[in-house]
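Quick one:
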Amino acid sequence: MNNDNPTSLIAGRCTLVGAGPGDPELLTIKAVKAIQAATVLLVDDLVNDEIVQAYARPGARIVHVGKRGGCKSTPQAFIERLMITAVREGETVVRLKGGDPFIFGRGGEEVEHLREAGIECAVVNGITAGLAAVTALGVPLTHRDHAQGVVFVTGHAKTGAGAAEDPTDWRALAATAYNARLTLVIYMGVSGAAHIERELLQGLPGDTPVAVIQHASLPHQKHIATTLGKLQDGIAEAGLASPAVIVVGDVLRGLAAAALPVPASLDAGRFGT
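Output:
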């Protein structure tokens, strides 16, 4: 046996697991099996505690590594060191993330760093919050009559040294969404909603329907249906905060109409009075 290969000396294994938007019943079977097999669970802040309580094996080491935009978080480099150390110690490690690891979950970075350390990593997808949010409202992301595609974008750009070099061009995105009839799904955008609204209005009409959904799929889910021109005001009036998803596009027209008050004349006519 050739022991020159460092991967041959690694006894443990690591899996990135998407815990979905929060509702434990939205976990995949593969995710449940991975959680049950883990001896070490590194759990993100947005993961529902009920998932860990229901499926973690007795005696598993559970490490909460909070990661939430705008709040104090465990440094990413420290989390990656924990993963590598535990695998080298022979542990079965699950990195449990809200939503899907490969959609704004930094899963790509973690896989790269694990591979650099000689560790191959499996990935189990989860339902991403942007899909769960609109589904909870009975609205699709695409529709043959309203949206020919969907764009997932973060409203929380890089921080630190790379921040100024990597801004989202919201004006170009708005123009593309308008011309190509796309739905925009904006993650981590609540804190920057005023800026996002102002920039998107350069390419999209002010009456473009918008929904903001907080705590998607959970019993305490909240949402508003409004228009792009009233995005920031609607968020402030409803008291919405992270974690929330902003959805922009014509697929929401039915939802926006349902949220409007019914004129007295129409209401009276409906009931024949």
